[in-house]
Specification:
This protein is of the alpha+beta class. It has eight helices and ten strands. It is globular and about 75 Å long. The chain binds protoporphyrin IX containing FE. Keywords: Heme, Iron, Lyase, Metal-binding, Oxidoreductase, Peroxidase, Signal.
Length: 376
């Protein structure tokens, strides 16, 4: 199991090759004190340096009479490729009561707004939004859990867990060195994703540049994180023919190749038709609607995970895709596409969006820096 540097121009956990597991957490800040919010971000940064290096939080043991500084369940486990990625939500700038609790209102990026209500959304407020988020990814779920648990513990009295999501398997590749994994519908997911190796494309589609938003120069080198908890009707899917399943995605199930022919990484040909003139990649198929050629050239870096939270009271599996995407501008790269998919995507019939969040992830930190420093 590897170890990823915590420091750098960008936060880790974005173009880092997607790890096997995720534990995502969203927090409400419960204090009105700017100083305590800053102290929390500093404490979290210090702990993140330790955790991502595979060390105990707090540098070891305290007096025997005190609770241990680290909760202990990761003792003896390697770093397991742990990355911790921090973000701030729109409500940090204007709280639920509309007040500017921390004097940050003037620095809110214009694009950092609660995502709009999309057609067919069925959002649970207790699984949505939040003032702060932490995405923990690791190859060992115990290591990811341990990280979120200890950060939550450090936040006691300053921020409280609002919602969290455990993901058990990656549904994307973020490096061309990785095999494409499969989602719970059994299809390869991540084939056409933005990859770490596409450096020019990352600057164009992923990283916020200086000058993108004059109010939010602190976000340069950062990015936006879109989170959507998408419940998948797998029982219905499992009664659908393979022909229909492939038609819905526009790719074949075995290889992930476009239905216009070729192999997994070959370019889909949307003009190709069958003998009767029907497009081989149907007009309402997911890859056609999501393709950059249909979206003003926009791309996104997807980094989602399969999840299950047991079953519903109706005896169906409560399972799906915890969709995470990183974009330079959600207003251009996510919102229009989500509107299109919700209205036209053949896949939508099998989905229900039950949770949502938008966060701005500040740039990475140097040796003395702390996450979010530029904001204060
Ligand atoms: C592509 C599955 C939701 C955006 C794909 C592919 C699959 C897939 C199998 C083709 C392989 C690939 O290139 O990765 C799913 C499933 C979803 C879901 C099962 C829900 C449970 C979404 C959402 C969005 C999205 C909500 C964004 C609003 C994209 C994009 C592509 C893609 C941009 C690449 C299109 C291309 O460039 O060819 N998805 N997806 N997907 N999906 Fe999704």
């Amino acid at each position: 199991a590897g170890m990823y540097a915590f420091e750098g121009p960008h936060q880790a956990g974005i173009v880092t090759p997607a790890q096997d597991r995720m534990y995502f957490a969203s927090f409400d800040v419960t204090t009105r004190s700017r100083e305590r919010l800053v102290a929390l971000l500093q404490d979290w940064t210090r702990a993140a340096r330790e955790l991502t290096a595979g060390r105990e939080v707090g540098g070891g043991t305290l007096p025997y009479a005190d609770p241990p500084a680290d909760t202990g369940e990761a003792i003896g486990l390697p770093a397991s490729g742990l990355t911790l990625t921090f973000g701030v939500g729109p409500s940090l700038f204007t709280g639920a009561d509309g007040t500017d609790r921390f004097g940050l209102g003037g620095r809110r990026p214009a694009a950092l707004e609660t995502l709009p209500h999309f057609p067919k959304d069925h959002l649970d407020p207790s699984r949505s939004d939040g003032d702060l988020c932490v995405q923990a990814c690791a190859d060992d779920p115990q290591v990811a859990f341990h990280a979120i648990r200890n950060l939550t513990r450090l936040a006691f009295g300053t921020a409280a867990l609002r919602w969290s999501q455990l993901g058990f398997g990656r549904t994307s590749s973020t490096s061309s060195s990785q095999e494409t994994p499969r989602n719970l519908f059994g299809f390869k997911d991540g084939t056409a994703n933005l990859k770490a190796e596409e450096s020019g494309e990352l600057d164009r589609h992923l990283w916020v540049a200086a000058g993108d938003d004059p109010r939010a120069d602190w976000l340069a080198g950062g990015t936006y994180l879109v989170a959507r908890r998408i419940s998948m009707r797998i029982e219905t899917w499992d009664r659908t023919s393979l022909r229909e399943q492939e038609g819905i995605f526009g790719r074949d199930r075995a290889q992930g190749a476009p239905l216009s022919g070729g192999r997994e990484f070959d370019r889909p040909d949307f003009t190709a038709t069958s003998r009767d003139g029907a497009p081989l990649i149907a007009t309402g198929s997911h890859v056609r609607l999501a393709h950059p050629s249909q979206n003003d050239g926009h791309r996104m870096l997807r980094r989602g995970y399969n999840y299950t939270d047991g079953d519903t009271s109706l005896g169906r599996m409560d399972a799906g895709l915890f969709f995470v995407a990183f974009v330079r501008d959600p207003a251009r790269q996510y919102i229009p596409l989500q509107n299109t998919l919700a209205r036209q995507d053949a896949l939508t019939e099998y989905l229900q969006h039950t949770g949502s969040g938008l966060f701005a992830c500040p740039p990475g930190v140097g040796p003395d820096g702390w996450i979010g420093e530029g904001l204060f």
